[in-house]
Amino acid sequence: MDKIIVFETFYNPIKANIVKSRLLDSGLQCFLSDEHTIGMNPLYTQALGGIKLHVFERDLEQATAILQEEGFAPGFVMSSDGGEEEVPVEETAIVEKVCPNCGSTHVGYVQSTKKRFGILTMVISFLLAVYPFHVNKTWHCFDCEHEFEE
C-alpha cells in the first residue's frame, strides 16, 4: 500500500488549488486537506497549520520536478538522501523574507502569537466587554516558530 505524505503547505487557498490543478493535469493523484475549514474561517489558518497538499510518496520527485518546471516550487526541494537542497533563485525573482533565527524562507506576516494585544486594546476591550478588536501583526517563521520585526 502506498504511503500518502504532505507535499506542501499553503496559507493561500487560491495558490493551493492552482498547484493541485497543475499536478492533477499532469496525471498525479493529489488532494487538499483543511481547505474548507480555512475557507470558512481564515483565522483557523495558523491553528491548523495551513492547507495541506497530499501526494503519494512514490510521486514526490515527479511532483517536485513538475512544479519546479512551472515555477511553483518553493526555494528548497527534497534531495535524494531525504534532506533539502537549495534551488538557485533567478535575479528577477521577488526577494522573500528570511528568518533571522533559522534562515528559513517559510515565513509570513500574520497575527502575533506572543504579544497579540496592546495595553490600550486590552483596556478598551475589557471596559466594553468585547473581544479585542485589534491584534498586533508580525513576521512569523513556520519552521522554528520565531517571531520577528522587519
Strand order of the largest sheet: 1-3-2
Helix/strand-derived class? Answer: alpha+beta
CATH third-level topology of the largest domain: Alpha-Beta Plaits
Query: What's the end-to-end separation, in Å?
Result: 46 Å
Q: Which percent band covers the strand fraction?
A: 15-25%
How confident is the prediction overall: mean pLDDT?
Answer: 77
Shape: elongated
Order of helices and strands: EHEHHEHEEEHEE
Total domains, how many? Answer: 2
CATH architectural category of the largest domain: 2-Layer Sandwich
How would you describe this structure to a colleague?
This protein is of the alpha+beta class and 150 residues long. The chain has 2 domains: 4-86, Alpha-Beta Plaits (2-Layer Sandwich); 107-148, no CATH class. Helices cover 29% and strands 23% of the residues. It is built from 5 helices and 8 strands, in the order βαβααβαβββαββ. The strands form 3 sheets. The protein has a 3-stranded antiparallel sheet with strand order 1-3-2. The protein has a 3-stranded antiparallel sheet with strand order 6-7-8, with no helix packed on it. A hairpin with a 5-residue loop joins β7 (137-141) and β8. The longest helix has 13 residues, at 13-25. The protein is elongated, with a radius of gyration of 18 Å. The relative contact order is 0.14. Mean pLDDT is 77; it is low at 74-95.
